[in-house]
Amino acid sequence: MIRIEECKLDLNFTEDDLTERVCKILRVPKDAILSLEVVRKAIDARKKPDLTYVLTVDVQVRKEKSVLSHADQAHVKVMEQIRYHFPKCSAPKRFVRPVVIGSGPCGLLCTYELALHGFRPILLERGSDVDKRCAKLQHFFSNGVLDPNNNAQFGEGGAGTFSDGKLNTSIKDPSGRGREVLKLFVQMGADPRILSDAKPHLGTDTLVTILKNLRARITELGGTVHFDSCVTDLAINGQKITGVFVNGETLIETETVVLAIGHSARDTIRMLRSKEIAMEAKPFAVGFRIEHPQEMIDLAQYGISDHSVIGAAPYKLTAQANGRGVYSFCMCPGGYVINASSEPNRLCVNGMSYSGRDGKNANSAIVMAVRPEDVDTNEPLSFLTFQESLEEKAYWLANGAIPQQLYVDFKDDRVTNAYGDFLSTTKGACAFTNMRHLLPEALTAAFLSGMEQFGRKIPGFDRPDAILSGIESRTSSPIRIPRDDAGVSSIDGLYPAGEGAGFAGGIMSAAIDGIRTAERLALRLAGKTAE
Q1: Buried b / exposed e along 88-108 (16+ C-beta atoms within 10 A)
Q2: 377-392, pLDDT tens digit by residue?
Q3: pTM value?
Q4: How far apart are the first and last CA of the chain?
């Protein structure tokens, strides 16, 4: 197969335009093209507002060697097509069904692959199905009544359901697991454009459809999904897993358990700690979510205010302040700031968007790396308890509403009285307060320095009426549960996986880790070792 890189076309290009461009680069007539596929499509805004698409295209042609000999060599290379393959193993006639805890992207993809290959997994989710979960969350946004098991963190789909649904990842994927995830999402109802967009995303509305279809497919394949089923204890005998207790009463016997709990299952983490399962503190980041008019971001990034053709503009910002990293996180073009709390008397925020990204504001977390010296102790739960303490302070700042403050008032250490030239777009009650002393001073100083730097990169980013919401604390898991090369923890048969265990950071990396864990577990049940 031939891969063409840096294939540039106008924003309104047609399929005929693409074919003509490919033929020109390869110096062949149209009938020499057997197939072509756009595998990556990105926007080139270096000469804004004159924008173009830059494509990477895989092409199959007649007489490939001859074509390569006279093609434009600047952007052409031979590419071996990567196809994902699950390990060659099958479920034995008799085996104890594996249990997967958590229905986030890691748990779902692990469950799907195990079901697809005959291992009949049991998936346990502490929250409800996505329809009931959506209803409970909307009730929370409207009335402030929190369900600890059905919120922005817990329930079918995990924390990713109520986010922007970004599918880009920086991890290397030579095995093709990532492509397999994208293809599965398309089969379950996602827009096929995610297969080629450089920065693909789904949006909450699309994720709801995908989750329902994926659950139905898992069931068809022999898997079982149980909602409202919180794992409250593990049965362990001689350092080996023998079962899980659900809702404090029901025992499900098993020899293999995938721990895909997500980064907010603090009660489960403490239960694991009480079982003396090895774990360690893992640094994370904390900060505030900031809002700007989406039109301002579009003008800064693309030089245009009408994004109807190319979609709302994203951004990614990084800085260093006193040796501490400051960066944007989970940026949501045309999105909403939501109350993402999952525990009584503790509050955190997140960003979400729908597939159309058609909200009036852009929002992103601006977070600072937390260091060991920022917490009191070095024990495994030190970062987790620090995270909890910040959320408790955030909750009481506005009595359970999302605390908000204009950037100028944050700098000047005073309470905000009114919004500036634009309004906040939030889901959940919000109230003005003073967040200047919510974070330790070192983190606050880093935030202010980072904002000044970002204002030089995106004009207006540090505008006085930029809206801050706090606190953004669930950026990643504050613990890691070590695992060996076979994916097993200090307890035989227990497989820590995904974001909650400290091995992923986002939908794609968690899903990929879920597939990887399914491979390892399947090999074990089949009595084989990895090749």
Answers
A1: ebebeeebebbbbbbbbbbbb
A2: 789 999 999 999 999 9
A3: 0.95
A4: 27
